[in-house]
Design a protein that fits this description.
The protein is built from eight helices and eleven strands. By secondary structure, it is an alpha+beta fold. It has a five-stranded mixed sheet. It has a four-stranded antiparallel sheet with strand order 2-1-4-3, with helices on both faces. A hairpin with a 3-residue loop joins strand 10 (about 370-375) and strand 11.
């Protein structure tokens, strides 16, 4: 739980940091772009004045300086238009049309767009004639356009960083969980081995000493059961090879085992097809999954009378198993967490059963397991899908 909380805090911190970086980038870029826009407008005002000076030049005008200003603009697209909107001259406006007429129409259209955007400077050519003027319209330079896209590029980079960081954290978490599962399972199997061997020996001694005792076969069944549990634990962490198995027989075996170990007030109902449903299974591990679902169903009934229904069907290329109980149900807020390691609503238990069940179904059998539906006070249905 502490590790999960820490991961959640780190993810929240990364998201907050990404948002702060993005906001700061947008603010800084906004002011920078605004300053560059003002600077470019100032340059265009100087350029427009140079055009007016060139148009009204006399013998005393220093044309070298004027031409230097005009020719010095190599980045900002600019168009000079007369009062009727005709193009007088232009610079830095890309033209890709094939004919001169098409090029002119393209420049006129660009000029109207620039003027509509408010990027226009009117220069009076004569103080006495009001209609004697030119309009200098201009657009954004290539550098300004690139800079306007920069915050969004930076935001994308930040988002990619956050996604990669979160993915790395989740992968690290899963790898650590896997190590814990394998280590815990192997150690459990190892620790069970010695007492099971002793119990098997004592059972043989008791059988020789009391050959007619009816309790000894039952004791032997329990020892065999312990041996099966140890074998299941030893297989966690390895990749057992599934073999074609009758799903009907596996489910029957689980029902037979659970029926003898649950209260008589709880009825187990099986809904199986007439024909065997054959799937690739590791029977020992898959029985563990169904047993775990059945035990959870029993716990959900809280000692009250109820029904556990085990439904099996074959549809196309899939085999479907539903385990339905008439227990107390699962609150909606907990549905997303039921398979999370450590999550439990019981007073006792580690919250590992459903997590192990999910691992066995999805990692070892390439299937799916989820809560199909759950209603408070009515019961819960867990569904498993396997490939046939």
């Amino acid at each position: 739980m502490q590790w999960t909380d820490r991961i959640r805090q780190v993810k929240i911190s990364l998201v907050v940091a990404a948002v702060l970086i993005a906001v700061a980038s947008l603010v800084v870029s906004h002011f920078l772009i605004r300053d560059l826009e003002n600077e470019e407008r100032g340059r265009m005002e100087v350029w427009a004045e140079a055009m007016r000076t060139l148009s009204t030049a006399d013998g005393n005008t220093d044309l070298n300086l004027v031409l230097k200003v005009i020719n010095g603009n190599n980045t900002i697209p600019v168009i000079v238009m007369d009062p009727q909107g005709r193009i007088q001259t232009f610079r830095n406006v890309p033209v890709s049309a094939k004919t001169a007429a098409d090029s002119l129409r393209h420049v006129e259209m660009a000029g109207r767009q620039m003027k509509a955007a408010g990027n226009s400077i009117r220069i009076l050519m004569s103080d006495s004639v009001k209609d004697d003027y030119i309009d200098v319209v201009f657009g954004e330079s290539l550098m300004l356009k690139r800079l306007s896209w920069y915050p969004f590029v930076q935001l994308g980079v930040v988002l990619i960083f956050v996604v990669v960081a979160v993915f790395a954290l989740l992968t690290s978490k899963r790898a650590e969980q896997n190590k814990v599962w394998v280590g815990l399972s192997k150690e459990t199997a190892h620790q069970l081995g010695t007492p099971i061997s002793s119990l098997m020996a004592w059972t043989e001694i008791l059988r020789e000493t009391y050959p007619d005792d009816d309790l000894i076969p039952e004791l032997n069944k329990d020892v065999t059961r312990l041996q099966l549990i140890a074998d299941r634990f030893s297989k966690i962490g390895s990749l057992p090879e599934p073999v074609p198995t009758s799903l009907n027989e596996v489910m029957d075996h689980v029902i037979s085992y659970m029926d003898r170990r649950t209260s008589r007030s709880i009825r187990m109902v099986k809904e199986f097809p007439d024909r065997d449903v054959i799937v690739n299974l590791n029977a020992s591990l898959f029985e563990w999954v169904i047993e775990n679902l059945c035990k959870n169903a029993v716990d959900a009934m809280g000692g009250q009378a109820g029904v556990i229904t085990l439904h099996v069907e074959a549809t196309g290329t899939k085999a479907i198993i539903d385990v339905t109980d008439t227990g107390k149900g699962i609150p909606k807020k907990d549905l997303r967490n039921v398979f999370r390691p450590g999550f439990t609503t019981k007073e006792r238990g580690w919250g590992l059963g459903l997590s192990l069940a999910k691992r066995i179904v999805e990692d070892y059998h390439r299937g799916r397991i989820w809560v199909k539906n759950s209603d408070l006070g009515s019961g819960t249905t867990f569904r498993i899908e396997l490939k046939r």
